[in-house]
């Protein structure tokens, strides 16, 4: 019984670490406007909302949309303001993206466990 409990605790810690590791990398890509780096953490198709335009896009299409967004709104910083997760290996993060043109955007992204790796399956970028 102890082995089972330790095993479950170990898996929970590993999952939490994986979420935080991906979050740190995504945070870095959002801070620098790196659309290619960000898209490497997308599932094959991603539900993307960028400034009132929402659809399900392929990873490549989503990268191009984000590249265009970052060209118009060069990031200065990105900070996480809230995070959460469920027991079904789904996690979300909410943050604020500040840009050189003085605009602020609320960024929300949802991640799910895909083959032992957390990937973004939904992202929203809306002006505050």
Averaged pLDDT = 89
Task: Look at the structure and give the CATH class.
Answer: Alpha Beta
CATH architecture: Roll
State the domain count: 1
Tell me the major beta sheet: 6 strands, mixed
Describe the protein's architecture and organization.
By secondary structure, this protein is an alpha+beta fold. It has one domain (2-127): Nuclear Transport Factor 2, Chain: A (Roll). Helices cover 39% and strands 45% of the residues. It has helices spanning 2-32, 35-39, 59-72, and strands at residues 42-50, 53-58, 75-85, 90-99, 104-114, 117-127. It has a 6-stranded mixed β-sheet, covered by helices on one side. Strand 5 (104-114) and strand 6 form a beta hairpin. It is globular and about 55 Å long. The termini are far apart. 25% of the residues are buried.
